Amino acid sequence: MTADVPPGTSVSRATDRPGDASPFALGLLLRRAHMRAATVMSEALRPLGIELRHFAVLIVLVDRGPTVQRDLAAATGADKAGIMRIVDDLERKGLAVRRTVPGDRRVRAVEITPQGLELFDAAHVAAESLAERLVAEMGAGEAEQLTNLLTRFAYPAGDEA
Question: How confident is the model at residue 104 (pLDDT cuts 50, 70, 90)?
Answer without folding.
Answer: confident
